[in-house]
UniProtKB/TrEMBL annotation:
Name of the molecule in the record: GAE domain-containing protein
Pfam assignment, any one: Alpha_adaptinC2
Keyword presence, Hydrolase: no
GO CC entries: Golgi apparatus
InterPro entries with a match to the protein in the record: Adaptor_Complx_Large_Subunit, Clathrin_a/b/g-adaptin_app_Ig, Clathrin_app_Ig-like_sf, GAE_dom
Major subcellular location class: membrane
Keywords, ordered alphabetically: Golgi apparatus, Membrane, Protein transport, Transport
GAE domain residues: 39-156
Subcellular location(s) per record: Endomembrane system; Golgi apparatus
Naturally occurring in which organism (per UniProt): Ceratopteris richardii (Triangle waterfern)
Gene Ontology BP annotations: intracellular protein transport; vesicle-mediated transport
Length: 159
């Protein structure tokens, strides 16, 4: 049965039998098991500057092709820690955006730690218009305000 799962076949539990009630208690009734088809999307570096890298990974809830959960990871590439770190995003009107709270507001230096954040988008024109997002990242470095901005257009197809 394990080989059937790995080979993409539809596995079954037990062997077919004609005595359903007897087989129900003996455990040999044939029951088809189908695997969920969950599309896989590549992880994408959506923003990189000399001081910061933002990476998105994507998952879709089953049965909701218009919805996407984005798991964002923020990495500080500089030798100085960032305080008061805030990620903001704007999307076109046909997309609904929900930003969950970030895991921290302090981003350690030189990739020694990361901040993570869950972003949920709902594309009301899924299949007709691709995801697009403008981002704004604010933080303090050496007690000075810093601001980075960009636009993300390289979302994988099918989101």
């Amino acid at each position: 049965m394990v080989n059937g799962l790995l080979d993409g076949e539809t596995p079954t539990v037990g062997q077919p039998s004609s005595d359903f009630l007897g087989d129900l208690f003996s455990g040999s009734q044939s029951i088809p098991v189908t695997k969920a088809e969950i599309p896989q999307f590549p992880t994408v570096d959506v923003f990189t500057s000399k001081a910061l890298k933002v990476t998105f990974s994507f998952t879709k809830p089953p049965g909701k092709p218009q919805s996407t959960q984005i798991d964002a990871v923020y990495v500080n590439l500089s030798p100085n820690p960032y305080a008061n770190f805030i990620f903001q995003a704007a999307v076109p009107k046909f997309i609904q955006l929900q930003l969950e709270p970030a895991s921290s507001s302090v981003l350690p230096p030189q990739g020694e730690g990361v901040i993570t954040q869950k972003i949920i988008v709902h594309n009301n024109m899924h299949g007709q218009k691709n995801l697009a997002m403008k981002i704004r990242i604010a933080y303090k470095v050496n007690n000075q305000d810093a601001l980075e901005q960009g636009q993300i257009n390289n979302f994988p197809a099918g989101l």
